[in-house]
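Handout, section B. The chain below has 107 residues.
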Amino acid sequence: MKKRSWWRRPAGERRMNCLQVARLLQSYLDGETDEVTARRVAAHLEDCRRCGLEASVYAEIRDALSRRGTPDAEAVARLRTFGEALLSDPPAADDGGDRGAPPSAGA
């Protein structure tokens, strides 16, 4: 019986590691991956408990957000005001503005 190395397997048979799956998980859950990649991610999720749990949490969050109706108008207004304040106000110097300066020679 001859062992086959992972790099010699056809693309659809190659195993993915956790890092590869993490990079593709959102796209996979949204149905945005090609068929071969989707099969590879699905195979990893079946074998890896940690990645499978992460996928189920992502799916639960997505489902909860999709059930939510229109966002609260007051919350959107607060968020918009906060974002505008971040863009328009310069950062406040709480210690006289010398945070990035090197220490003085006499210190």
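Note. The first helix runs from residue 18 to 29. Compare this with the example in section A.
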